[in-house]
Amino acid sequence: MTAAMSEDDKTKGNEAFKKGEFDRALEHYSRALETAENHVIRSNRSACFSQLGQHEKALVDAEEAIRLAPSWPKGYSRKAAALFFMGELDQAHAAYSRALELDPKDELVRQALADVALEQVRKMRKQRLDKICKSLKSQKPQPQVYLNDHGLDDDDAALLCRSLHGNSTVQSLWLGDNIIGDAGATAIASVLRNNSALLEINLCSNKIGDEGATALSEALTVNQTLTELYLNRNCIGQKGAFALARALEVNVSLIRVGLSDNPVLQQSNEIKRAIDDQLWANRSHEIVEQDCKYTCNRLCMPKNPNDPCTPSMKAQPIDQGQKSCLVQ
Asked: Phi, psi at residue 296, to the nearest 5°?
């Protein structure tokens, strides 16, 4: 096979790749490599293997491209892509970093490097969640679960809740600043129905709407031990707020409820008065409004152990005789 034929196969491989015909592109690249080694064709074939889900073969070709052209950045980015899909995030990060060193202007590699770094954080958070779940199942004493800002979604919340069923040690559950929605809130509600150890739940800055708020409210008609529930900065409207108000008619354990920055507070004054009047009628309940109860308004997003809003550094409550500021 001549060099001209090899170049022809490379061209045909590139055309097939652009059309998404990766099997055909692979055949052309493989034929081209039968004539002589070439770092560009190795890189192209590596990309084909990646598209076909054959990441180990993609890695072999990428490493061969690097051997043939150690200063060529594309070989490192191909290697990084293969390693990323193999779950080797640390090695992928190193390979993308090397590619960026060789070509600092490559914005695609820069973005890929940022994506790997984000995935490393997600993996670390997932590992921490798994570790906590195992600990909860073992009934090892753990009065507080702190998973604020961990990117937790509904599935993660459900996984955590399965571990909380039957747990008698956790008293404080902090899940603020995540992406938990109605399904996750419903899973938490199922725990509330059967768990008498939990005293505090923080769900600030999530994506909980009326369905999730209603599920939590219905659970509160059964649970009589939870004392604090923070739902600030969610998506709760009239239906969810009224469900909470009805639950407070029979629930006597809650002394602090956070609802600030929800859509319900932007709606009619009538619903605001209805909720406020119901809570004010029961002097054992307080509504927590940002900047009203706590000196710091970052209640659900402490990032620093020394932050005055961390669970272990709570501010003093306002006088129970002071009227709620919910409807401001």
From this structure: -110, 135
Residue where the block lists tokens 């000196």: 295
- Core vs surface per residue 91-110: b (16+ CB within 10 A) or e: bbbbbbebbbebeeebeebe
Q: Which of 150, 240, 152, 228 is nearest to 192 (CA)?
A: 228
DSSP symbols for 172-216:
EEE--SS---HHHHHHHHHHHHH-SS--EEE--SS---HHHHHHH
Q: What CA–CA distance (Å, rounded) separates 192 from 194?
A: 5
Distance CA 253, CA 96 (A): 54
Closest CA to 29 of 45, 16, 43: 45
For residue 77, how many C-alpha atoms fall within 13 Å in the half-sphere facing its CB?
A: 21
Amino acid code (one letter) for 238: Q
Residue type for 135, please?
S
pTM comes to: 0.62
**Kind of pairing, strands 256-258 and 286-288?**
parallel
Q: In which band, very low, low, confident or very high, does the pLDDT at 316 lie, cut at 50, 70 and 90?
A: very low
Proportion of the chain above pLDDT 90, given as a percent: 51
What one-letter code names the amino acid at 234? N
What are the extents of the domains in the chain? Answer: 37-119, 141-288
CB of 58 closer than 8 Å to CB of 80: no
**What distances in angstroms separate CA 168 from CA 151, 191, 192, 196, 263, one per listed residue?**
26, 11, 12, 7, 35
% of the chain with per-residue pLDDT over 70? 79
Q: Are 317 and 286 in contact (CB under 8 A)?
A: yes
3-state secondary structure of 145: strand
For the domain made up of 141-288, the CATH class stated in words is: alpha beta
Work out the end-to-end distance of the chain between its first and last CA atoms, rounded to an integer number of angstroms.
82
CB atoms within 10 A of CB 131: 10
Contacts of 169 (CB under 8 A, 6+ apart): 136, 139, 140, 141, 142, 143, 197
Q: Which two tokens stand for residue 46?
A: 């590596």
* CATH no., domain 37-119: 1.25.40.10
Residue with tokens 């739940």: 201
